[in-house]
Amino acid sequence: MFKLIMALIGISIFSFSSFATEYPFLKEYKGLISKKYILIPHRGTYLLPFIYNDNPNNKVYETAFPDVVKEKRGNFNDYTEAEFQISFLILTNKNIFNSGFDTFIGYTHQSWWQVYNTDWSRPFRETNYAPEVFFRKVPDDPVSFFLGKILVYDFGFIHQSNGQIQELSRSWNRFFYRVVLVFDQIMLKTTLWHRLPEETNEDENPRIYNYLGYGELEIKHKFNSHSYQLRIIPGIKKQGFEFSINTPWKEGLQFYTRVGYGYGLSLLDYDHDNRKIGMGFILADPFTK
Questions:
Q1: CB 153: neighbour CB atoms within 10 A?
Q2: How many Cα atoms sit within 13 Å of 184 on the Cβ side?
Q3: 126/162 Cα distance (integer angstroms)
């Protein structure tokens, strides 16, 4: 793992032969960061009004309520719920120390809402908060790497938590390194991370590497006007996957369908096997287009 991390860092430091190949979404992205005080798209902003989960996680609430309450109201987590995400970046500094790297502050807010569960007063089942700060370099000419081009590389720090009480709390802090490559109509985003160690008696997620591993891989493919994305969560012992399809609808808005299977799909469920499908809408941005 250490050798792999050093190899990726080496990609960022040493120069490769590059060609003046134009990527329209990169031009649009650079147009965004040229403006001051603007929210820049990051991990996707979407609404899935309907998600069906064949295996909702109720075990975390088994000891929280008396059996008589559960018998009257049913499961705390219904099979059907809604999900939404808001994710953006703010540019704080450009070309720091003439290095070509820009500094960003990012935030991703992801919520799962039991909006159809009237017996439990439609609660928000879980919300994940992910602030981050990182350095990003986008070369003027994409850098040649094997048969593809390196478009972006980032490194920084991210905190992720679900803001719950101690018994249900999940949080961790990581340093990460991220590279985005393009091979014709395929975009590959590779992220590696290292978790900051915690005291044993304070560690809320001692087994999280078993389910979320040391990074993740996202593969996007554009075919005609549609785009397909596969997210792979390579845990050490258990894995998770998300597959999504974006279809154009209106200017700036796309239909969005996503299938999730396995582990690591949210913090509270990181060690729970999910099987779900959702449909809704996603805001278009330079990368989702």
A1: 22
A2: 2
A3: 7
Question: Which is it for strands 253-262 and 80-93: parallel, antiparallel or unpaired?
Answer: unpaired
What is the CA angle 27-134-150, rounded to 5? 45
pLDDT digits (tens, 9 = 90+) for 218-242: 999 988 888 999 999 999 999 999 9
Q: How many CB atoms sit inside 10 A of residue 236's CB?
A: 13
Nearest CA to 130 out of 156, 153, 91, 92 is that of 156
Instruction: Give the pLDDT confidence of 37-72 residue by residue, as tens digits.
Output: 889 999 999 999 999 999 998 887 776 676 767 777
User: For residue 145, which amino acid is it?
Assistant: F
Domain ranges of the chain: 2-283
The residue to which tokens 């919520």 are assigned: 111
Q: Which two tokens stand for residue 46?
A: 């979407």
Nearest to 149 by CA among 26, 260, 235: 26
Which CATH code, of 3.40.50.150, 3.40.718.10, 2.40.50.140, 2.40.230.10, is assigned to 2-283? 2.40.230.10
Residue 118 carries which side chain, given as an amino acid letter? T
Tell me the sheet residues that pair with 195.
174
One-character DSSP codes across 63-128: TTS-HHHHHHH--SS-SEEEEEEEEEEEEEESSGGGSS-EEEEEEEEEEEE-TT-GGGTS-EEEEE
| Number of C-beta neighbours around residue 10 at 10 A | 9
Query: How much is the pTM?
Result: 0.86
CA 41, CA 284: separation in Å to the nearest integer?
9
What residue type is assigned to position 146 of the chain? F
Tokens of 14: 């040493």
The residue type of 242 is E
